[in-house]
What we know:
Oligomer: heterodimer
Number of strands of chain B: 18
Largest interface: A-B, 19 and 22 residues
Structural class of chain A: mainly alpha
Largest sheet of chain B: 8 strands, mixed
Radius of gyration of chain A: 12 Å
Number of helices of chain A: 5
Largest sheet of chain A: 2 strands, antiparallel
Strand content of chain A: 5-15%
Amino acid sequence: MPSELAGICDKNTLIKIGNTYRVQTGENNGEYLEELLFDDSELRDSEIRIFLNNKVIEDFDKGNTVLIEGWLLSVTEARQCALFSLLETN
Amino acid sequence: MHIDAREINNNTIIEGDLCIVGAGAAGMSMALDWNNNGKKVILLEGGGFEYDDDVQDLYSGKSTGQRYYPLRSCRLHLFGGTTGHWGGMCAPLDPVDFKVRSWVADSGWPITLDDLLPYYGTAQELLDLGVYNYSIEYWREMYSGLTPFPLDKEVIWSKMWQFSPPTRFGKKYKETIVNSPNIFLYTYSNLTKIIANEHVNHIRELQVKNLEGKTHRVRAKKFVLACGAIQNARMLLASRGQAKNGIGNDKDIVGRYFMEHLEIKSAELWLKKPFSTELYTFDYSTRKPRAELAMTEAIQKNKRVLNGTASLMPLEIAKKQIPLIDVWSNEDPRQSFDNLVANLRPSKEKSIDKNNMNGEMAFELFTRMEQAPNRNSRIILADEKDALGIPKPQLNWGFTELDKYSIRKMYHILGQQMGKASLGRIKLEEFLWDENDHSMPDHLGGGWHHMGTTRMSADRNKGVVDANCKVHGISNLFIAGSGCFSTAGAANPTLTLIALSLRLSDYLKTS
């Protein structure tokens, strides 16, 4: 799950964000979401968090944002929520 | 000197060098500027020194369009005017407010901020404020712990506000005015007619009345209307005996371009970890300066948005607040004021309880934004008349698409910056979610700031007054106050309207 957002929103909110993101964007497939999130598939687990956090900041810097349930989010963290919501559903 | 116009002979002719109509912030500031200068100043006030329900009734009016505060209660009709219940928030306008902005129709003043700078200092003194300095750097030296959010300064800056006690002009300056050798204050003198010469290019005299049935005439070399944006427009429109659309209104601009500040709870800010927000917090006990988050001129231009700010309030307090438009709903200004104070009490108590001030991580973000100049947002005359026979004012408060777009965009910008700085996240209120919805919600409030109804422009086809606040086409009629504002800016208007009035005062002395 998105680490910064998880410090602000509870689990149910993250799932709701994820569900809404998937409906709004049609990015509904877990593998596809992972592909979008991890463009370097050789990252070690310990590097994933740093990689994604940096990607979130970069998203905000470039204006790569999306409005989900009122939350102004980085696309990366919205996708993380989407993936999280899929995993929770399954 | 004070004269009660109820007690002098009917049909008295009052004469002076300068006649100022209205003893509120604008009118009284000008009168005080003429104190002891040897010229005879007539200062007309429709009410008395104390609140009077029957006199206050003369301010009743109707509202169509967007819901607004009752016209009867959002202004005070007595000596001191609406300073009798204002909140004291003061900040100057920004340089961008005076500029022509290609994305804001009818923007641009015929003066710049530099033209007002010489007068802001005196305005500060009249309002019992400290030094005229609104830079964050200055206040960080004066007070410890004022730390701005580490956001990109090219995008977001911290605009400072200072707080007047608030100064009640009616109390503070009564003695000075009443004891002045050259200011002649006439209470219970309501302007009812503006009488011009045959060519309607020069004002000969004013007719004033009171509810006791007395009528008087006032003659002066120069006349200044300083009754507030709504009343000034109303009186120009109502003076239709010689000009069918009203005095100064041959271009159908009087009353148009009514502007308020768009004030509404707009978003939540959730911080990742505690951050001292003392810079942004209002301290009820000290009333020390505080900041609001503002957009730079560059980002306003880049994103084509209006000028506005976001203030912070701890979310647990904000959730107890009722929207201002619902709080200030009583036609009696005293009751509405009491309701407002009660609504602010939780915030005040939390501010005083300093143990609870630290460690807040969730805030309401409250917008104050200018509205775009809009011809169709206007004051007209209603069919109904008041007890003195003057048509009541009718407000149609209206907006353009740029207004809501700007509010929404501001929070997108702020959210982006908060995320980029890894400070936290912003959650927009639901009324801002749909980009295709341009309507304003019913709980939108204003700041009780009335502006633009006799706007300033060098072009008489676009304004009522010129750069010196003189009514176009009339040699000796001037208007003082925020009705002359061409655009509203993000700041509360009182400090600027006083500065503008002092500038007019200077001009009248030398012209």
